[in-house]
Amino acid sequence: MHSSGTGSLTTEPGEQIRLPFVLMRGGTSRAVFLRGGDLPDDTGYRDATILSLFGSPDPRQVDGLGGADLLTSKLAVIDPPSRPDADINYTFAQVSITEPVVDYDINCGNISAAVGAYAVDEGLVDPVEPVTTVRIHNTNTGRMLTAEVPVVDGAAAVEGTCAVHGVPGTGAPIALDFGETAGGTTGALFPTGNQVDVLDTSVGPVRATIVDLANLTVFLPAGDVGMVGTEGPEEFSEEQIGAITAAKEAAARLLGMAPDGLTPVPAIVSPSAGYVDYSTGGSVVPDEIDLVARVVGGRPAVPHKAYPGTLAACTGVMACIPGTTVNEVAGQGCEGEIRIGHPCGVMPVQVRVGRDAGGWRIDRAVFHRTARRLAEGTAFIRRSSISGVKGN
């Protein structure tokens, strides 16, 4: 990012420091976009700046740009590409609402769509109509993903017929392909070498599929963590969240990772069934979906109100690989479209997998999101919020 220390953040007088930003929606999430060169390289000063920008920690984030929700307390940092096959570098951060923590160990698929649109609008790629391909190097996972961005009059298109459940209205469809992201954290699609592991947890044995694609994820059968699977985000009990957290921590230990990180992200899967759409109060019927999925994540761990794009790509691929917990509930080996039922609707993923001498090969893991630039300008950081921060 920027030079060590507080960098340019200390060069102007006054009690507040100016920081240029763009606010964008991507899919069912929203993020503040910053240029890496506007942030200090030093991790202590950088994270203090980000926390002040978002107004964290505070459940309402009333003194910052955070949206007081897991889906709207997100940051995208954009830098020049560090590899020749990329157009840009993109670093994702999940900013805790209630703790003074900025997490960098996951990516966000919804915000990845906004990254593609941002690259077009900021002139970081040459706009090509009707579609511009943006090659994005996600630094969190060290992997490449591709965004196909519709373009009108040299800018990322806004209007279109693509409906994203959980987002009002329709927009221009941005296709995101996570097919090249396997092994970003651990080096392997199946880090343990198994399609199913039995986790020894504080609530008993839990069957799990641990997968490293788009994000490091652990898929848990709903029944193993005391769930039906169709629970809405406000219907999770403390016991269910505790069981899910225990399984996630056991999976982390199995991988030799710290159990208190955000990964592996726990996803709960169950067979197709009907339930109430959390966002509209309408019905999701079994014939519309191939399986039901829920996610618990963040700091502290809470049920997601939608479904992360990265996990959708991973879920779709696992639905097509026999022997995984996802394939067991989806009940199929497949090519084509997998329809995931999540709290506020249905998310389709286009999948193509194959096998070669090295094992399973992911040829395609595509979903569509819409994105829109919401605001741009100057944010103000309280100088006192970074004064006295210990550099790292």
Explained architecture:
With 392 residues, the protein is α+β, with helices and mostly antiparallel strands. The chain has two domains: 7-172 and 372-385, Diaminopimelate Epimerase, Chain A, domain 1; 197-369, Roll (Diaminopimelate Epimerase, Chain A, domain 1). It contains five helices and 21 strands. Strand 12 (215-221), helix 3 and strand 13 (265-271) form a beta-alpha-beta unit. The relative contact order is 0.16.
Properties at a glance:
392 residues; 19-stranded mixed sheet; globular; Diaminopimelate Epimerase, Chain A, domain 1; 36% strand; disordered N terminus; single chain
What is the succession of H and E elements? Answer: EEHEEEHEEEEEEEHEEEEEHHEEEE
CATH class of the largest domain: Alpha Beta
Structural class by secondary-structure content: alpha+beta
Instruction: Give the terminus-to-terminus CA distance.
Output: 14 Å
Give the count of structural domains.
Answer: 2
Q: What is the annotated CATH architecture of the largest domain?
A: Roll
Summed over residues and divided by their number, the pLDDT gives a mean of 94
Q: What is the alpha-carbon Rg in Å?
A: 20 Å
Low-confidence stretches: 1-6
Based on DSSP secondary structure assignment, what is the total number of beta strands?
A: 21
The CATH superfamily of the largest domain is Diaminopimelate Epimerase, Chain A, domain 1
CATH topology heading of the largest domain: Diaminopimelate Epimerase, Chain A, domain 1
SS summary, helix count: 5
Q: Which strand-content bin applies to the residues?
A: 35-45%
Q: Could you state the oligomeric state of the chains shown?
A: single chain
What is the overall silhouette? globular
Q: Considering DSSP H and I runs of 4 or more, what fraction of the residues is helical?
A: 10-25%
Largest sheet: 19 strands, mixed
